[in-house]
Specification:
alpha/beta; Rossmann fold; six-stranded mixed beta sheet; five-stranded parallel beta sheet; 14 helices; globular
Length: 431
């Protein structure tokens, strides 16, 4: 980037104890604490100065825990809905779009808001780290990290279930610094996480960290920052489809920072997050008012994931019970977990494309379906400020305009692989 970037000043804080400490590089946990807790970035600037659009995602750099900026990023775009809003009788529906829609200045080439994570996480990495970053996902996250790391020459190993490989498409062949391994057919996102955890334990590899990584959450919170700084005040309601719920935690944390900023009102935005039937573990735990996730049969879970359209919303071990996690976010915002069937989501996706003019991902369609239902049944006021987080879209448009290249796995592992076997094969990959 041609402009001068000064690394962001911040410290880290344990959500559980409030203890503040320095970030000594890639810290994912609070030191010397026994109870599981997320850590948060506490920024020197309590009032955010948003830069111009030429900075891409880094227009929100004041509230990103980064030491550098990388090329190729795009920021989420927020606009006031006309078509869908009219259809639903809503006066203040705002859509935050992270995807490919050049006409709206949205240029996410992976068509997913997971790019916000990747540019922030990789911006947190320092050149001295000299380790291979390890990322697991059901598809979109890995596609985003692969693009960012390929474009910026950052060594990366991604772990994706074999059944989700069709999500790894790109508009150009990737740099050799990016490698892919898979868990075999019949496995799910949790199996890919298990494989990545094994690999991240080897010397020379470092886990991206998922929800524990402050850069991932604060990258995702740019959706909330985009909405609030565009609207001029904090929204009343927030709709998003969730698997892990990390995006919703990030929105809540962004909300808390915006309250401290003082210029955007005093609203605690109600989180209305959605799961895709039949895979509904967060909904089930929340309805039972349980901080712990309820017992889940592995085989049943895999079968449920097979049935759902929005496979990226399938996380069997979300950051729900941990201090500062999804349970706390829902409690603090009087939030709710809503549900949508495949059929409802498909109808919602078609309605969105018809009224707004762009295709959206199944996960975003799940969120849209719950918004439609909430508007119909009076759960939200017609004049309330509503933020609909469209977490991916424009993929059909992007694919129609570009030649595609697919990343193939170097190795396919069994669902419960032998650790020594994994070690010997992975060490060969990065010789």
């Amino acid at each position: 980037m041609s402009k001068q970037f000064i690394p962001t000043n911040y410290k880290l804080q344990s959500v559980k104890t409030g203890k503040i400490f320095e970030d000594k590089g890639w810290m994912l946990e609070a030191p010397d604490e026994t109870e599981p807790t997320l850590i948060r970035a506490i920024y020197e600037k309590t009032q955010i100065e948003v830069k111009d659009n030429s900075w891409g995602l880094y227009k929100f750099a004041d509230w990103l825990p980064i030491s550098r900026t990388l090329k190729g990023s795009s920021a989420p775009v927020t606009y006031k809905s006309e078509g869908l809003a009219k259809e639903l009788g809503l006066k203040n529906l705002w859509i935050t779009f992270s995807g490919y829609w050049p006409e709206k200045n949205a240029t996410f080439n992976t068509c997913s808001f997971k790019e916000t994570e990747a540019y922030s996480v990789c911006g947190r990495m320092t050149p001295e780290m000299d380790n291979v970053l390890v990322v697991a996902s059901a598809g979109n996250t890995s596609r985003s990290f692969a693009k960012v790391c390929s474009d910026n020459n950052i060594p990366l190993l991604i772990c994706v279930p074999e059944d989700n490989l069709d999500a790894l498409w790109f508009d150009a062949p990737l740099n050799d610094c990016v490698k892919l391994v898979s868990s075999r057919t019949g496995s799910d996102y949790f199996d890919a996480i298990h494989l990545s955890n094994i690999i991240a334990g080897f010397e020379g590899f470092v886990p991206e960290g998922g929800a524990k990584n402050v850069a991932r959450r604060d990258g995702m919170s740019t959706t909330m920052l985009s909405a609030t700084t565009t609207i001029g005040e904090i929204p009343d309601y927030y709709f998003q489809g969730i698997g892990s719920g990390t995006g919703a935690i990030a929105a809540w944390e962004g909300n808390l920072r915006l309250l401290a900023d003082g210029r955007f009102g005093d609203t605690k935005m109600k989180l209305l997050i959605a799961q895709n039937i039949p895979f509904t573990p967060v909904h089930d735990a929340w309805k039972a008012d349980s901080r712990a996730m309820l017992p889940l049969d592995e085989e049943l879970a895999r079968n449920q994931v097979e049935e759902m359209d929005a496979k990226v919303l399938s996380n069997r071990k979300p950051p729900y019970p941990v201090f500062g996690g999804l349970y706390d976010a829902l409690k603090d915002t009087s939030g709710e977990v809503l549900l949508a069937t495949n059929e409802e989501a498909r109808k919602a996706g078609k309605l969105f494309e018809k009224t707004e003019g762009i295709d959206i991902h199944p996960a975003a369609a799940v969120a849209t379906a719950t918004l439609i239902e909430a508007a119909k049944n009076g759960k939200i006021e017609k004049d309330a400020i509503i933020m609909l987080n469209i977490t991916g879209g424009g993929e059909q448009k992007f694919k129609a305009e570009n030649e595609l290249f697919y990343l193939k796995p170097e190795i396919i592992f069994d669902i419960n692989p032998d650790v020594e076997d994994v070690k010997s094969k992975i060490s060969e990959l990065f010789k």
